[in-house]
């Protein structure tokens, strides 16, 4: 099989893996309605937690994370030893793995199985990073937990976590001298991922600015007055 066909197979399989709408499937199969009809109209785990409860929320979160992991691992298997036209200093395996993860995220956001109305792609991104950059993912998760504990806003925590990813890569590589395989590619690719995540949260940003964003008040461990919704 030619290089082009293998790359096409990786791209197509990554998209379809990311496109599996687990939130919609679980809500329709076990609750009799489309999760996108209620709450934030999103099929991701945050809205599932809010509308369907923690069991369904955990199930959707784990399955969406596995989509990112699966896309990267499958790409690594199919693209093992593949020589692509590459005039950059980046390794072929890093480019292929990260690209497969990004395509899976786009599949989640624009799923062909649910009218191209998907989710934000956070959990799928977590799965991708779990397979590629686990240390920096842990840093991003730490930032996420801090922001959520201060604000109660999962969307705000997700956006700050996306910014923490390239920041972690940059600091570890440049200030601590830690070798990171494929660093030059990962730093730029993670910046693109951050932009993608923030773009996916554009409606949340509008609600945050208006003080109307959905808040998990039980998760806000430290109450800060200006972070409280205006409608409360």
* Strand element count: 0
Q: Topology as H/E string?
A: HHHHHHHHHH
Structural class: mainly alpha
Number of distinct helices: 10
Q: Percentage of helical residues?
A: 55-70%
Strand-residue proportion:
under 5%
Cα distance spanning the termini: 60 Å
Instruction: Specify the overall morphology.
Output: globular
Major beta sheet, specifics? Answer: none
Number of domains: 2
| Poorly predicted parts | none
Query: Which whole number gives the mean pLDDT?
Result: 89
Give me the Rg, rounded. 18 Å
Q: Explain this structure to me?
A:
The chain is mainly α and 232 residues long. It folds into 2 domains: 1-132, no CATH class; 134-232. Helix content is 67%, strand content 0%. It contains 10 helices and no strands. The chain has helices spanning 3-19, 22-31, 45-52, 54-78, 92-109, 122-132, 134-151, 154-174, 183-200, 202-210. Helix 6 packs antiparallel against helix 7 and helix 7 runs antiparallel to helix 8 (154-174). The longest helix is centred in the N-terminal third of the chain and has 25 residues, at 54-78. The chain is globular, with a radius of gyration of 18 Å. The chain starts with a helix and ends in a 22-residue tail after the last helix.
